[in-house]
Amino acid sequence: MQEMRIVRMLLRVSSNQQLEADGDLSVQRRLVADYISRHPDWLLDEKEYFEGSKSGYKTAVSDRDTLQEAMEDARKKEYDILVAYKDDRIGRRMWEIGAYVMALKNYGVDIYTVKDGCISPEGDDIMGQMMLALRFGNAQKSSSDTGMRVKDTAQKLIQQGKFMGGNAPYGYELALSGKLSRHGRALHQLKVVPEQAGVVRHIYALSLNMEFGSAKIAKLLNEDDYYKTMAPNDVWKSSTITSILTNPVYAGFMAYKRRERRNGKYCRLGRGEWIKSSEPDISLQIIDGDIWNRTQEKRERRADKYMKASDDKGSKVTRRNEGMLFLIDVIYCGYCGKKLTNGTKYSYWTIKGSGEKRTRKIPIYRCQDAQMGIPHNKASQFHADKVEKIVAVIISEYIQNIQEKEDIFEAIEKNREKERKALEAGIGRMEKELKKIAEGIGAMEECIPGAIAGTCPMSVEELASAIRRQKEKEEAQRNLLEEKKSTIREVGITVQKRMWIKEEIPTWQHVFQKADMEMKRVVANKLISRIDVAKEQIVIRIKVDINEFFSIKANNFDKQVGLNEDAIKSISL
To answer: Within a 13 Å sphere around the CA of 224, how many CA atoms are in the beta-carbon half?
Structure first.
Protein backbone atom coordinates (compact mmCIF):
# COMPACT_ATOMS: atom_id res chain seq x y z
CA MET A 1 0.00 0.00 0.00
CA GLN A 2 1.38 3.40 -0.99
CA GLU A 3 2.08 5.94 1.74
CA MET A 4 -0.24 8.93 1.33
CA ARG A 5 1.43 12.34 1.03
CA ILE A 6 -0.30 15.36 2.54
CA VAL A 7 -0.87 18.11 -0.04
CA ARG A 8 -1.82 21.77 0.38
CA MET A 9 -2.59 24.29 -2.34
CA LEU A 10 -1.25 27.84 -2.72
CA LEU A 11 -3.51 30.40 -4.40
CA ARG A 12 -2.57 33.99 -5.18
CA VAL A 13 -4.32 36.78 -7.06
CA SER A 14 -2.86 40.21 -7.80
CA SER A 15 -6.04 42.31 -7.91
CA ASN A 16 -9.45 42.58 -6.28
CA GLN A 17 -11.16 41.81 -9.60
CA GLN A 18 -9.60 38.36 -9.59
CA LEU A 19 -11.37 37.66 -6.29
CA GLU A 20 -14.78 37.65 -7.99
CA ALA A 21 -16.78 34.42 -8.16
CA ASP A 22 -16.04 34.03 -11.87
CA GLY A 23 -12.54 35.48 -11.61
CA ASP A 24 -9.08 33.98 -11.55
CA LEU A 25 -9.28 32.70 -7.96
CA SER A 26 -12.07 30.18 -8.56
CA VAL A 27 -10.39 28.99 -11.76
CA GLN A 28 -7.07 28.48 -9.95
CA ARG A 29 -8.70 26.51 -7.14
CA ARG A 30 -10.57 24.22 -9.56
CA LEU A 31 -7.52 23.52 -11.74
CA VAL A 32 -5.27 22.82 -8.76
CA ALA A 33 -7.85 20.53 -7.14
CA ASP A 34 -8.24 18.58 -10.41
CA TYR A 35 -4.46 18.21 -10.70
CA ILE A 36 -4.20 16.87 -7.14
CA SER A 37 -7.04 14.39 -7.70
CA ARG A 38 -5.04 12.76 -10.53
CA HIS A 39 -2.41 11.55 -8.03
CA PRO A 40 -3.76 8.54 -6.09
CA ASP A 41 -1.09 8.80 -3.38
CA TRP A 42 -1.83 12.48 -2.68
CA LEU A 43 -4.29 13.55 0.03
CA LEU A 44 -5.58 17.13 -0.18
CA ASP A 45 -5.47 18.78 3.23
CA GLU A 46 -8.33 21.05 4.31
CA LYS A 47 -5.93 23.94 4.91
CA GLU A 48 -4.94 26.08 1.93
CA TYR A 49 -2.66 29.10 1.61
CA PHE A 50 -4.21 32.16 0.00
CA GLU A 51 -2.95 35.64 -0.88
CA GLY A 52 -5.33 38.29 -2.17
CA SER A 53 -4.31 41.47 -3.99
CA LYS A 54 -0.63 40.81 -3.28
CA SER A 55 2.07 41.38 -5.89
CA GLY A 56 4.57 38.56 -6.23
CA TYR A 57 6.96 40.95 -7.97
CA LYS A 58 7.00 44.04 -5.75
CA THR A 59 6.54 42.29 -2.39
CA ALA A 60 9.51 40.66 -0.69
CA VAL A 61 9.16 37.08 0.56
CA SER A 62 9.80 38.27 4.13
CA ASP A 63 6.75 40.57 3.85
CA ARG A 64 4.40 37.87 2.53
CA ASP A 65 2.74 36.40 5.61
CA THR A 66 1.21 33.51 3.66
CA LEU A 67 4.60 32.25 2.45
CA GLN A 68 6.03 32.60 5.94
CA GLU A 69 3.10 30.60 7.35
CA ALA A 70 3.66 27.86 4.75
CA MET A 71 7.35 27.78 5.71
CA GLU A 72 6.57 27.47 9.42
CA ASP A 73 4.07 24.65 8.77
CA ALA A 74 6.69 22.88 6.64
CA ARG A 75 9.16 23.15 9.49
CA LYS A 76 6.56 21.45 11.71
CA LYS A 77 6.20 18.62 9.14
CA GLU A 78 2.48 19.31 8.67
CA TYR A 79 2.46 18.56 4.92
CA ASP A 80 4.62 17.08 2.16
CA ILE A 81 3.67 18.87 -1.08
CA LEU A 82 2.67 22.43 -1.97
CA VAL A 83 0.78 22.83 -5.26
CA ALA A 84 0.23 26.08 -7.20
CA TYR A 85 -1.32 26.70 -10.61
CA LYS A 86 1.85 28.23 -12.11
CA ASP A 87 5.29 29.08 -10.79
CA ASP A 88 4.49 32.82 -10.89
CA ARG A 89 1.79 32.22 -8.23
CA ILE A 90 4.67 31.55 -5.83
CA GLY A 91 6.42 34.76 -6.82
CA ARG A 92 8.36 36.69 -9.44
CA ARG A 93 11.61 37.53 -7.63
CA MET A 94 14.53 35.54 -9.04
CA TRP A 95 16.81 35.10 -6.04
CA GLU A 96 14.27 35.23 -3.20
CA ILE A 97 11.81 32.70 -4.62
CA GLY A 98 14.56 30.26 -5.60
CA ALA A 99 15.92 30.41 -2.05
CA TYR A 100 12.39 29.91 -0.69
CA VAL A 101 11.83 26.80 -2.83
CA MET A 102 15.10 25.28 -1.58
CA ALA A 103 14.27 26.17 2.03
CA LEU A 104 10.98 24.24 1.74
CA LYS A 105 12.92 21.37 0.15
CA ASN A 106 15.21 21.25 3.18
CA TYR A 107 12.11 20.73 5.33
CA GLY A 108 10.98 17.87 3.09
CA VAL A 109 8.33 19.78 1.11
CA ASP A 110 8.28 19.68 -2.71
CA ILE A 111 6.55 22.36 -4.79
CA TYR A 112 4.47 21.25 -7.79
CA THR A 113 2.67 23.37 -10.37
CA VAL A 114 -0.19 22.35 -12.63
CA LYS A 115 1.78 23.54 -15.65
CA ASP A 116 5.26 22.14 -14.93
CA GLY A 117 5.00 19.42 -12.29
CA CYS A 118 7.69 19.30 -9.61
CA ILE A 119 9.95 22.38 -9.64
CA SER A 120 11.94 21.56 -6.47
CA PRO A 121 15.44 20.31 -7.36
CA GLU A 122 17.47 18.12 -5.03
CA GLY A 123 20.02 19.79 -2.80
CA ASP A 124 22.93 18.34 -4.79
CA ASP A 125 21.36 19.05 -8.21
CA ILE A 126 23.35 22.12 -9.28
CA MET A 127 21.89 22.17 -12.80
CA GLY A 128 18.37 21.95 -11.38
CA GLN A 129 19.04 24.91 -9.08
CA MET A 130 20.40 26.92 -12.01
CA MET A 131 17.21 26.16 -13.95
CA LEU A 132 15.19 27.22 -10.90
CA ALA A 133 16.94 30.62 -10.84
CA LEU A 134 16.38 30.97 -14.59
CA ARG A 135 12.68 30.09 -14.20
CA PHE A 136 12.01 32.86 -11.68
CA GLY A 137 14.39 35.23 -13.43
CA ASN A 138 12.16 34.99 -16.51
CA ALA A 139 9.10 35.58 -14.32
CA GLN A 140 10.71 38.70 -12.82
CA LYS A 141 11.67 40.06 -16.25
CA SER A 142 8.16 39.38 -17.55
CA SER A 143 6.66 41.42 -14.70
CA SER A 144 9.14 44.24 -15.28
CA ASP A 145 8.37 44.35 -19.01
CA THR A 146 4.62 44.23 -18.38
CA GLY A 147 4.91 47.06 -15.87
CA MET A 148 6.73 49.24 -18.39
CA ARG A 149 4.11 48.56 -21.07
CA VAL A 150 1.27 49.33 -18.66
CA LYS A 151 2.91 52.61 -17.60
CA ASP A 152 3.49 53.71 -21.19
CA THR A 153 -0.10 52.87 -22.16
CA ALA A 154 -1.48 54.56 -19.05
CA GLN A 155 0.40 57.78 -19.80
CA LYS A 156 -1.05 57.95 -23.31
CA LEU A 157 -4.61 57.24 -22.11
CA ILE A 158 -4.34 59.76 -19.27
CA GLN A 159 -3.19 62.45 -21.70
CA GLN A 160 -6.36 61.71 -23.67
CA GLY A 161 -8.44 62.19 -20.49
CA LYS A 162 -9.33 58.51 -20.02
CA PHE A 163 -10.23 57.13 -16.57
CA MET A 164 -7.78 54.32 -15.75
CA GLY A 165 -9.94 52.53 -13.19
CA GLY A 166 -9.49 52.01 -9.46
CA ASN A 167 -11.51 53.39 -6.56
CA ALA A 168 -13.45 56.60 -7.04
CA PRO A 169 -11.99 59.64 -5.23
CA TYR A 170 -14.18 61.31 -2.59
CA GLY A 171 -16.85 63.34 -4.37
CA TYR A 172 -17.28 60.79 -7.15
CA GLU A 173 -18.79 57.37 -7.69
CA LEU A 174 -18.24 54.67 -10.31
CA ALA A 175 -20.95 54.43 -12.96
CA LEU A 176 -21.23 52.00 -15.86
CA SER A 177 -19.88 53.51 -19.07
CA GLY A 178 -21.74 51.13 -21.39
CA LYS A 179 -18.45 49.77 -22.75
CA LEU A 180 -16.66 46.45 -22.31
CA SER A 181 -12.96 45.76 -21.89
CA ARG A 182 -11.16 43.30 -24.17
CA HIS A 183 -11.54 40.79 -21.32
CA GLY A 184 -15.32 41.17 -21.43
CA ARG A 185 -15.63 43.14 -18.18
CA ALA A 186 -17.97 46.13 -17.90
CA LEU A 187 -15.99 49.40 -17.82
CA HIS A 188 -16.81 52.20 -15.40
CA GLN A 189 -16.43 55.95 -15.45
CA LEU A 190 -16.44 58.64 -12.76
CA LYS A 191 -19.64 60.49 -11.88
CA VAL A 192 -19.95 63.46 -9.50
CA VAL A 193 -21.86 62.89 -6.23
CA PRO A 194 -23.55 66.28 -5.57
CA GLU A 195 -23.66 66.04 -1.75
CA GLN A 196 -19.98 65.11 -1.51
CA ALA A 197 -19.06 67.73 -4.11
CA GLY A 198 -20.39 70.39 -1.72
CA VAL A 199 -18.06 69.08 1.00
CA VAL A 200 -15.12 69.22 -1.42
CA ARG A 201 -15.86 72.89 -2.21
CA HIS A 202 -16.03 73.65 1.53
CA ILE A 203 -12.63 71.99 2.07
CA TYR A 204 -11.05 74.04 -0.72
CA ALA A 205 -12.58 77.23 0.72
CA LEU A 206 -11.09 76.51 4.16
CA SER A 207 -7.69 75.90 2.61
CA LEU A 208 -7.65 78.82 0.16
CA ASN A 209 -9.51 81.52 2.11
CA MET A 210 -8.74 80.58 5.73
CA GLU A 211 -5.29 79.08 4.99
CA PHE A 212 -6.00 76.12 7.27
CA GLY A 213 -3.79 73.04 7.06
CA SER A 214 -5.06 69.50 6.51
CA ALA A 215 -5.09 68.55 10.21
CA LYS A 216 -7.00 71.73 11.14
CA ILE A 217 -9.58 71.14 8.40
CA ALA A 218 -10.04 67.50 9.44
CA LYS A 219 -10.57 68.58 13.05
CA LEU A 220 -13.17 71.20 12.06
CA LEU A 221 -15.08 68.73 9.89
CA ASN A 222 -15.09 66.10 12.64
CA GLU A 223 -16.50 68.67 15.09
CA ASP A 224 -19.31 69.74 12.73
CA ASP A 225 -22.57 67.79 13.09
CA TYR A 226 -23.23 67.74 9.34
CA TYR A 227 -19.76 67.32 7.87
CA LYS A 228 -18.80 64.50 10.23
CA THR A 229 -21.68 62.45 8.78
CA MET A 230 -20.18 62.95 5.31
CA ALA A 231 -16.77 61.53 6.25
CA PRO A 232 -15.40 58.52 4.36
CA ASN A 233 -15.04 55.56 6.74
CA ASP A 234 -16.79 57.56 9.52
CA VAL A 235 -13.91 59.94 10.31
CA TRP A 236 -12.00 62.72 8.59
CA LYS A 237 -8.20 62.35 8.57
CA SER A 238 -5.55 64.83 7.51
CA SER A 239 -4.34 62.35 4.88
CA THR A 240 -7.83 62.35 3.32
CA ILE A 241 -7.91 66.14 3.26
CA THR A 242 -4.44 66.31 1.70
CA SER A 243 -5.51 63.84 -0.99
CA ILE A 244 -8.58 65.95 -1.83
CA LEU A 245 -6.61 69.20 -1.90
CA THR A 246 -3.88 67.86 -4.20
CA ASN A 247 -5.86 65.70 -6.65
CA PRO A 248 -6.30 67.50 -10.01
CA VAL A 249 -9.38 65.41 -10.82
CA TYR A 250 -11.44 67.98 -8.88
CA ALA A 251 -10.43 70.53 -11.54
CA GLY A 252 -11.41 68.03 -14.25
CA PHE A 253 -7.91 66.75 -15.04
CA MET A 254 -6.91 63.09 -15.00
CA ALA A 255 -3.38 62.60 -13.65
CA TYR A 256 -0.81 59.83 -13.57
CA LYS A 257 2.55 59.42 -11.83
CA ARG A 258 1.63 61.62 -8.86
CA ARG A 259 3.76 59.34 -6.74
CA GLU A 260 6.59 56.95 -7.49
CA ARG A 261 8.09 53.89 -5.86
CA ARG A 262 11.67 54.57 -4.75
CA ASN A 263 13.78 52.21 -2.64
CA GLY A 264 10.71 50.10 -1.91
CA LYS A 265 8.57 53.04 -0.72
CA TYR A 266 6.13 55.37 -2.44
CA CYS A 267 6.84 59.10 -2.37
CA ARG A 268 4.89 62.07 -3.72
CA LEU A 269 6.21 63.81 -6.83
CA GLY A 270 6.03 67.51 -7.58
CA ARG A 271 3.31 68.84 -9.87
CA GLY A 272 5.85 69.39 -12.62
CA GLU A 273 6.49 65.64 -12.83
CA TRP A 274 2.83 64.60 -13.17
CA ILE A 275 1.35 63.25 -16.41
CA LYS A 276 -1.95 65.14 -16.89
CA SER A 277 -4.73 65.14 -19.44
CA SER A 278 -4.30 67.91 -21.99
CA GLU A 279 -7.82 69.32 -21.47
CA PRO A 280 -10.16 69.29 -18.44
CA ASP A 281 -13.31 67.17 -18.43
CA ILE A 282 -16.03 69.68 -17.56
CA SER A 283 -18.41 66.91 -16.45
CA LEU A 284 -15.98 65.97 -13.66
CA GLN A 285 -15.04 69.50 -12.59
CA ILE A 286 -16.02 70.30 -8.99
CA ILE A 287 -13.44 73.06 -8.42
CA ASP A 288 -12.64 75.83 -10.90
CA GLY A 289 -9.19 75.38 -12.43
CA ASP A 290 -7.99 78.79 -11.23
CA ILE A 291 -9.11 78.06 -7.65
CA TRP A 292 -7.35 74.69 -7.75
CA ASN A 293 -4.07 76.26 -8.95
CA ARG A 294 -4.20 79.07 -6.37
CA THR A 295 -4.85 76.50 -3.63
CA GLN A 296 -1.75 74.56 -4.64
CA GLU A 297 0.39 77.70 -4.69
CA LYS A 298 -0.82 78.80 -1.25
CA ARG A 299 -0.23 75.36 0.23
CA GLU A 300 3.29 75.25 -1.19
CA ARG A 301 4.11 78.74 0.14
CA ARG A 302 2.70 77.83 3.54
CA ALA A 303 4.75 74.62 3.60
CA ASP A 304 7.92 76.59 2.83
CA LYS A 305 7.07 79.06 5.57
CA TYR A 306 6.66 76.34 8.18
CA MET A 307 9.79 74.53 7.08
CA LYS A 308 11.75 77.69 7.90
CA ALA A 309 10.35 81.20 8.22
CA SER A 310 12.17 83.80 6.10
CA ASP A 311 13.26 85.71 9.20
CA ASP A 312 14.98 82.61 10.53
CA LYS A 313 16.85 81.47 7.43
CA GLY A 314 20.17 82.58 8.88
CA SER A 315 19.64 81.02 12.30
CA LYS A 316 21.90 78.32 13.64
CA VAL A 317 20.10 75.15 14.66
CA THR A 318 21.04 73.32 17.83
CA ARG A 319 20.16 69.75 16.90
CA ARG A 320 18.90 67.78 19.88
CA ASN A 321 17.03 64.84 18.40
CA GLU A 322 19.35 63.29 15.86
CA GLY A 323 18.31 59.71 15.27
CA MET A 324 15.36 57.84 16.74
CA LEU A 325 13.93 58.72 20.16
CA PHE A 326 14.94 55.78 22.32
CA LEU A 327 11.45 54.89 23.63
CA ILE A 328 9.88 54.99 20.15
CA ASP A 329 9.31 51.20 19.96
CA VAL A 330 7.41 50.88 23.24
CA ILE A 331 5.57 54.17 23.81
CA TYR A 332 1.78 54.59 23.32
CA CYS A 333 -0.84 57.31 23.78
CA GLY A 334 -2.46 57.06 27.21
CA TYR A 335 -5.78 58.33 25.84
CA CYS A 336 -6.47 56.39 22.63
CA GLY A 337 -3.89 53.57 22.94
CA LYS A 338 -2.33 54.28 19.52
CA LYS A 339 1.43 54.13 18.94
CA LEU A 340 3.25 57.42 19.40
CA THR A 341 5.64 58.62 16.69
CA ASN A 342 8.65 60.90 16.83
CA GLY A 343 8.25 64.57 16.02
CA THR A 344 9.84 67.98 16.45
CA LYS A 345 8.87 71.42 17.75
CA TYR A 346 10.94 74.51 16.98
CA SER A 347 11.84 77.38 19.26
CA TYR A 348 13.34 80.62 17.88
CA TRP A 349 15.06 83.46 19.75
CA THR A 350 17.51 86.30 19.22
CA ILE A 351 20.61 86.84 21.35
CA LYS A 352 20.64 90.33 22.82
CA GLY A 353 23.60 92.45 21.91
CA SER A 354 24.80 90.47 18.89
CA GLY A 355 21.37 90.10 17.29
CA GLU A 356 22.27 86.52 16.30
CA LYS A 357 19.25 84.37 15.57
CA ARG A 358 19.21 80.92 17.14
CA THR A 359 16.93 77.92 16.73
CA ARG A 360 16.36 74.91 18.92
CA LYS A 361 14.69 71.65 17.91
CA ILE A 362 12.63 70.12 20.71
CA PRO A 363 12.06 66.36 20.29
CA ILE A 364 8.54 65.18 21.07
CA TYR A 365 6.45 62.02 21.05
CA ARG A 366 3.15 62.66 19.29
CA CYS A 367 -0.11 60.80 18.66
CA GLN A 368 -0.72 60.37 14.94
CA ASP A 369 -4.50 60.15 15.27
CA ALA A 370 -4.63 63.55 16.98
CA GLN A 371 -2.25 65.05 14.40
CA MET A 372 -4.49 63.78 11.59
CA GLY A 373 -7.49 65.67 12.99
CA ILE A 374 -9.26 62.66 14.50
CA PRO A 375 -11.17 63.67 17.69
CA HIS A 376 -8.84 63.17 20.63
CA ASN A 377 -8.89 63.86 24.36
CA LYS A 378 -6.55 66.43 25.86
CA ALA A 379 -2.83 66.28 25.13
CA SER A 380 -1.59 64.83 21.85
CA GLN A 381 2.16 65.39 22.14
CA PHE A 382 4.67 64.99 24.95
CA HIS A 383 8.17 66.41 25.41
CA ALA A 384 10.68 63.60 24.98
CA ASP A 385 13.03 65.04 27.62
CA LYS A 386 10.38 64.90 30.34
CA VAL A 387 9.14 61.41 29.53
CA GLU A 388 12.61 59.92 29.07
CA LYS A 389 13.93 61.34 32.36
CA ILE A 390 11.05 59.80 34.27
CA VAL A 391 11.47 56.43 32.56
CA ALA A 392 15.24 56.41 33.18
CA VAL A 393 14.77 57.06 36.91
CA ILE A 394 12.00 54.47 37.24
CA ILE A 395 14.07 51.78 35.52
CA SER A 396 17.09 52.59 37.68
CA GLU A 397 15.04 52.20 40.86
CA TYR A 398 13.45 49.04 39.51
CA ILE A 399 16.82 47.45 38.73
CA GLN A 400 18.19 48.47 42.11
CA ASN A 401 15.19 46.82 43.78
CA ILE A 402 15.79 43.59 41.84
CA GLN A 403 19.37 43.50 43.07
CA GLU A 404 18.16 43.58 46.65
CA LYS A 405 15.66 40.73 46.15
CA GLU A 406 17.69 37.52 46.44
CA ASP A 407 14.52 35.43 46.73
CA ILE A 408 13.46 36.53 43.23
CA PHE A 409 16.51 34.91 41.70
CA GLU A 410 16.07 31.81 43.86
CA ALA A 411 12.45 31.40 42.74
CA ILE A 412 13.42 31.89 39.11
CA GLU A 413 16.25 29.39 39.49
CA LYS A 414 13.92 26.73 40.98
CA ASN A 415 11.45 27.12 38.14
CA ARG A 416 14.21 26.98 35.55
CA GLU A 417 15.69 23.86 37.17
CA LYS A 418 12.29 22.15 36.98
CA GLU A 419 11.99 23.12 33.32
CA ARG A 420 15.53 21.92 32.64
CA LYS A 421 14.82 18.46 34.08
CA ALA A 422 11.68 18.11 31.95
CA LEU A 423 13.67 19.05 28.85
CA GLU A 424 16.44 16.58 29.72
CA ALA A 425 13.87 13.78 30.04
CA GLY A 426 12.44 14.68 26.64
CA ILE A 427 15.92 14.73 25.10
CA GLY A 428 16.58 11.25 26.46
CA ARG A 429 13.45 9.91 24.79
CA MET A 430 14.33 11.62 21.51
CA GLU A 431 17.86 10.16 21.56
CA LYS A 432 16.43 6.66 22.03
CA GLU A 433 14.06 7.21 19.12
CA LEU A 434 16.93 8.49 16.96
CA LYS A 435 18.96 5.40 17.83
CA LYS A 436 16.07 3.13 16.78
CA ILE A 437 15.76 4.91 13.44
CA ALA A 438 19.52 4.57 12.81
CA GLU A 439 19.39 0.86 13.65
CA GLY A 440 16.46 0.41 11.25
CA ILE A 441 18.37 2.16 8.47
CA GLY A 442 21.38 -0.07 9.13
CA ALA A 443 19.21 -3.19 8.92
CA MET A 444 17.68 -2.08 5.62
CA GLU A 445 21.08 -1.25 4.14
CA GLU A 446 22.24 -4.79 4.97
CA CYS A 447 19.39 -6.06 2.78
CA ILE A 448 20.62 -4.20 -0.31
CA PRO A 449 22.78 -7.10 -1.62
CA GLY A 450 19.80 -9.45 -1.20
CA ALA A 451 17.53 -7.05 -3.06
CA ILE A 452 20.02 -6.90 -5.92
CA ALA A 453 20.27 -10.70 -5.97
CA GLY A 454 16.47 -11.04 -5.84
CA THR A 455 16.44 -12.90 -2.49
CA CYS A 456 14.92 -9.98 -0.54
CA PRO A 457 11.09 -9.62 -0.46
CA MET A 458 11.49 -5.93 -1.43
CA SER A 459 12.73 -4.68 -4.79
CA VAL A 460 15.78 -2.43 -5.01
CA GLU A 461 13.55 0.57 -5.78
CA GLU A 462 11.21 -0.14 -2.86
CA LEU A 463 14.13 -0.65 -0.51
CA ALA A 464 15.84 2.56 -1.67
CA SER A 465 12.59 4.48 -1.21
CA ALA A 466 12.15 3.09 2.31
CA ILE A 467 15.74 3.97 3.23
CA ARG A 468 15.30 7.49 1.87
CA ARG A 469 12.16 8.05 3.96
CA GLN A 470 13.86 6.75 7.09
CA LYS A 471 16.88 8.99 6.49
CA GLU A 472 14.57 11.98 6.08
CA LYS A 473 12.88 10.99 9.33
CA GLU A 474 16.31 10.64 10.97
CA GLU A 475 17.34 14.10 9.77
CA ALA A 476 14.11 15.65 11.06
CA GLN A 477 14.54 13.92 14.42
CA ARG A 478 18.15 15.10 14.63
CA ASN A 479 17.09 18.70 13.91
CA LEU A 480 14.43 18.55 16.61
CA LEU A 481 16.98 17.11 19.02
CA GLU A 482 19.40 19.96 18.31
CA GLU A 483 16.61 22.48 18.89
CA LYS A 484 15.86 20.90 22.27
CA LYS A 485 19.53 20.90 23.22
CA SER A 486 19.81 24.52 22.18
CA THR A 487 16.80 25.35 24.34
CA ILE A 488 18.21 23.62 27.39
CA ARG A 489 21.46 25.54 27.03
CA GLU A 490 19.47 28.77 27.21
CA VAL A 491 17.31 27.73 30.16
CA GLY A 492 18.20 28.63 33.67
CA ILE A 493 19.72 31.38 35.73
CA THR A 494 22.55 29.65 37.53
CA VAL A 495 24.31 30.95 40.59
CA GLN A 496 27.13 32.17 38.36
CA LYS A 497 24.66 33.96 36.09
CA ARG A 498 22.97 35.50 39.11
CA MET A 499 26.27 36.92 40.32
CA TRP A 500 27.03 38.15 36.80
CA ILE A 501 23.65 39.88 36.56
CA LYS A 502 24.18 41.54 39.94
CA GLU A 503 27.53 42.83 38.75
CA GLU A 504 26.25 43.97 35.36
CA ILE A 505 22.95 45.61 36.35
CA PRO A 506 24.53 48.85 37.64
CA THR A 507 26.10 49.36 34.21
CA TRP A 508 22.61 49.46 32.69
CA GLN A 509 21.83 52.54 34.76
CA HIS A 510 25.05 54.06 33.45
CA VAL A 511 24.02 53.18 29.87
CA PHE A 512 20.81 55.20 30.14
CA GLN A 513 22.79 58.25 31.17
CA LYS A 514 25.86 57.99 28.93
CA ALA A 515 25.11 55.75 25.94
CA ASP A 516 24.19 56.88 22.44
CA MET A 517 20.58 56.85 21.25
CA GLU A 518 20.74 53.45 19.56
CA MET A 519 22.10 51.72 22.66
CA LYS A 520 19.48 53.37 24.87
CA ARG A 521 16.82 52.11 22.48
CA VAL A 522 18.18 48.54 22.71
CA VAL A 523 18.20 48.60 26.52
CA ALA A 524 14.68 50.08 26.68
CA ASN A 525 13.36 47.36 24.35
CA LYS A 526 14.99 44.66 26.51
CA LEU A 527 13.42 45.89 29.75
CA ILE A 528 10.09 47.47 28.77
CA SER A 529 7.08 45.94 27.02
CA ARG A 530 4.92 49.09 26.88
CA ILE A 531 4.68 52.68 28.12
CA ASP A 532 1.34 54.54 28.13
CA VAL A 533 1.75 58.31 28.39
CA ALA A 534 -0.92 60.82 29.33
CA LYS A 535 -0.79 64.27 30.88
CA GLU A 536 -2.02 62.83 34.17
CA GLN A 537 0.15 59.73 34.41
CA ILE A 538 2.75 57.45 32.86
CA VAL A 539 2.23 53.68 33.06
CA ILE A 540 5.32 51.52 32.49
CA ARG A 541 5.13 47.75 32.03
CA ILE A 542 8.36 45.87 32.67
CA LYS A 543 8.98 42.57 30.83
CA VAL A 544 10.26 40.68 33.92
CA ASP A 545 7.18 39.16 35.58
CA ILE A 546 7.55 40.28 39.18
CA ASN A 547 4.55 41.44 41.21
CA GLU A 548 6.10 44.65 42.44
CA PHE A 549 4.69 48.16 42.37
CA PHE A 550 6.60 51.37 42.94
CA SER A 551 5.05 54.52 44.29
CA ILE A 552 7.10 57.49 43.07
CA LYS A 553 6.76 60.75 44.98
CA ALA A 554 6.30 63.94 43.02
CA ASN A 555 9.23 65.74 44.60
CA ASN A 556 11.60 63.22 43.01
CA PHE A 557 10.94 64.86 39.65
CA ASP A 558 9.77 68.43 40.25
CA LYS A 559 13.23 69.91 39.98
CA GLN A 560 14.30 67.73 37.07
CA VAL A 561 11.39 68.00 34.67
CA GLY A 562 9.03 70.57 36.13
CA LEU A 563 6.02 68.26 36.40
CA ASN A 564 3.34 68.54 39.06
CA GLU A 565 2.17 65.69 41.27
CA ASP A 566 -0.67 64.65 38.94
CA ALA A 567 1.80 63.92 36.15
CA ILE A 568 3.37 61.03 38.03
CA LYS A 569 0.87 59.96 40.62
CA SER A 570 0.14 56.61 38.95
CA ILE A 571 3.34 55.08 37.58
CA SER A 572 2.89 51.28 37.57
CA LEU A 573 5.64 48.77 36.96
So the answer is: 16
